# Entry
Amino acid sequence: MCGIVAYIGKKQAYPIILKGLKRLEYRGYDSAGIALLDAENSINLYKRQGKVSNLEEFAADKDLFGHLGIGHTRWATHGAPNDVNAHPHMSMDGSIALIHNGIIENYDSLKKELIKQGYIFQSETDTEVLVHLTDHISKKENVWFGEALRLALSHVVGAYAIVAMSKDYPKRIVAARKSSPLVIGVGTEGDFFLASDATPIVEYTKKVVYLDDEEIAIIDLDEGLKLYNIADQEKTPFFQELEMELEALEKGGYEHFMIKEIHEQPRSIHDCFRGRLNAEEGWVSLGGVRDYEQKMIQANRLIIVACGTSWHAGLVGEYLIEDLARINVEVEYASEFRYRNPIINENDVVIAISQSGETADTMAALELAKSKGATILGICNVVGSSISRITDAGSYTHAGPEIGVASTKAFTAQVTVLTLMALSLAKKKGTISETKFRTLLAELEAIPEKVKTVLETSDHIEKIAAEYKDASNALYLGRGSSFPVALEGALKLKEISYIHAEGYPAAEMKHGPIALIDEEMPVFVIATQGTSYEKVVSNIQEVKARKGKIIAVVTEGDVSVKEMADHVIEIPECDEQLVPLLATIPFQLLSYHIAVMRGCNVDQPRNLAKSVTVE
Ligand code: G6P
# Structure
């Protein structure tokens, strides 16, 4: 939610910030803005509602000179998405400019106080409070703007990543963080790059520092980078080397990031299990959580907390871990878990699943669990993300950067990690036979090739998409671990094509959704070979009896469903436990093709953001 980019150094700041904002647009695209310190040490401010490209067009004929600048792309929380509410926000005398990602919860009382002091607010944002408060403290206490910002933050309740600049300090930039991410890149020419994640930084430098909660960074071109805590005690920066490659951030010939990421799945799944399993030698090992496996086996229960697509992956994990390792698993929406006073203690293990590693609700759920003494683990994609840093241990999914707002390769990588986890726990606990263990390992190793085969059906799926692109509703059905796949299929369609869709356990359909079925209603069913096959076939017949349209994902060579369904999409044969990894791909492709045909913005669907750092 909201992307932040800033630069200070010898280069021109504008092109760096603009390019960075485009990389961060997945975090929000309601408005964009840039503040640049010009040759006369005045701040030029350019802001535009809508996408970064609107800002680019608007700024094209303006003075874009500046070696110091800050930029922002917004996902609106307080105040409509318009030019005025766009960041940066400026102090009334034009001396300080500031950008912010997060929410200032007590902004209303602070605002009232500042109005009493004579401050006039231009925008409806909570952020403007920060800039006026900093200015007020700076004048009242006669301190420079960085110190004033530090003091201001002690009055603030909420979450923030902030970057501020002042026309009176042309060699300085100040940043602070609490709950919202911020990375500082240390350039090779004595310059510095700041951003919400490393993607705007990676092409200039790989040496970075991730700010911790309640840390303030003061960057001075002469004195370098210094870190302080909110109490003004100096801290030692921990420099890290980025592992990200630039090519991963570009479309590589594809029309959209989403379709590129769908096609990356054979590789991303492989990268996810590489070095973690060997079918021939018969072992599996998730190094990051190995030391906690005994704890997981002995735990009261494993509680998976997550949001959105990651929650769906969690459900697949529940089926796998309970079935293979016979450990009690619960899957919770992080946003519900954190507020419902859950019973939790030191015998529980809480596992957060998060692509970004920044989702505010998931973070808060973990913090709550930690405060009750539970062990907290993470399954994240973004290396160095907040969740990966606050957890006791964890496993990365290694899917590489996911830019499309609708999650695809991150989901299959999460399911892969959970499969490895289930297998490892089952082996350790002795709840799986050696034959079954080895079969599943070999099957998992074969999944990337099978995903390739599913991807080859894209043209066939595109034809099906053409037939249903104008539907107003759709139903997705599955049983067992294909039920979460149905939920995920429905979510993908909603997210990017704006067609109302619901995922249901196939047998539950007769308790409600069946009333919706008529000849207009496409029903997408996972009807692959396995324990529930016959039952699903009956559910298909129930739909057909009411003239619904059936589009079924079936196992290669299927005969029965083919006779009943309007369309079938075949996936290669695989063990029932691994079906989610294959069955989810046709639904990703289907949503993609439908969204393209409907002229929707596939990579940046309306109202959504990839990383939800507000609750
Ligand atoms: C947002 C994204 C979803 C994602 C969810 C959880 O809503 O649009 O694609 O599944 O957040 O994000 P996380 O990064 O925690 O997996």
Notes: The first strand starts at residue 3 and ends at 8. Residues 148 and 497 are 46 Å apart (CA to CA). The longest helix spans residues 434-455.
